[in-house]
Amino acid sequence: MTPTHAAPPGAVPRTRGTGRALLLASARALLLLVAVSAAVFAATELLPGDAAQLRAVPGAQQEEVQRLREELGLDAPAWQRYAAWAGSLATGDLGVSLVNGRPVADALLQRLPATLALVGGALLLAAPAMLALGWWAGSARRGGGAPTALLTGGAALPSAVVASGLAALLSGALGLVPPVSLLPPGRPPTESPELLVLPVLSLALPTALFGASLLSGAVADALRRPHVADSRRRGSPAWRVAAVDVLPFLLAPLTRVLAVSAGGLVAAATVVETLFGYPGLGSLLVASLASRDLPVVQATAVLAAAVVLAGLLVADAVAAVADPRGRTP
């Protein structure tokens, strides 16, 4: 007869424990999204002026400004406007622009493909780079933390500095790519890949350095595990040690870093798109801030937060399923 292994008393089956962990992670992500929406709404309330003041003709009387404010629904108390906005958001209704009256969802969908191409290209470049650099820094930790400090210092460079430096080198000095990324009307960004080079690199480089600085600790911890040392003593090749013994322990932290990076890229794209004239969500956010078009600003900010939280939820799922420490023999 095949021997069976009885679970210890009080033990929670792995599938049940995984399901419970994912349920708790989903609830936590939902609560965080609600908190983020409240924080975004509060931050936009602190902006000076409003859409009514900007839309009023120069020299308009206070009565005219107040009439515009009532038409736009800006005269209601802040808590009522937040409740109405959050309720609409929960049903998928992002509201309408205060500037042109168009649905906010239409404005986001029009710019979203351009930003997705930018963020997706940056992640495709940054993911293998951060893993390689994180491995290098984590492997060198026994000799000190200089590699990690170097990565952290590089990641701290402002996006504008990185973008300006790359533009000066690749466009100014070498003449390899255009200095701006103005897409022809109606043409998807993938049809003009040369226009993506500068903005994608400007986002991918600091993202790779930042992610590698975070991953270096996880790499160092994984390399110190007894089974890794045992595998090396048995003469396993370096590629097998990395792929079989170490990589499973890096899946969850790598997914978390990529999730945070994805949301950070949406925010960093604001600077990069403005510098290169790239028509994505970032430039839409800047224009909406200038015109105090708060529904567009709020929807864009919440979208970036939702990307981060969704990615972290995926990371929790990866950790629950793939983490070798949770496997039963």
From TrEMBL:
Q: Does the keyword Nucleus apply?
A: no
> Where this protein primarily resides, as one coarse class?
membrane
Any one annotated GO CC term:
plasma membrane
* Annotated ranges, domain ABC transmembrane type-1: 112-315
Sequence intervals crossing the membrane: 21-43, 116-137, 149-176, 196-220, 241-259, 265-287, 299-322
Q: How does it sit in the membrane?
A: Multi-pass membrane protein
Q: Which GO terms describe its biological process?
A: transmembrane transport
Keywords from the named record: Cell membrane, Membrane, Transmembrane, Transmembrane helix, Transport
- Which Pfam families does the record associate with it? BPD_transp_1, BPD_transp_1_N
Query: According to its UniProt record, where is this protein located?
Result: Cell membrane
InterPro entries xrefs: BPD_transp_1_N (IPR045621), MetI-like (IPR000515), MetI-like_sf (IPR035906)
Keyword Cell membrane set for record: yes
PROSITE patterns on file: ABC_TM1
Alphabetized PANTHER family for the sequence: DIPEPTIDE TRANSPORT SYSTEM PERMEASE PROTEIN DPPB-RELATED, PEPTIDE ABC TRANSPORTER PERMEASE PROTEIN
Concerning its family, UniProt says: Belongs to the binding-protein-dependent transport system permease family.
Query: In its UniProt entry, what is this protein called?
Result: Binding-protein-dependent transport systems inner membrane component
Q: What organism is listed for this UniProt entry? A: Nocardiopsis dassonvillei (strain ATCC 23218 / DSM 43111 / CIP 107115 / JCM 7437 / KCTC 9190 / NBRC 14626 / NCTC 10488 / NRRL B-5397 / IMRU 509)
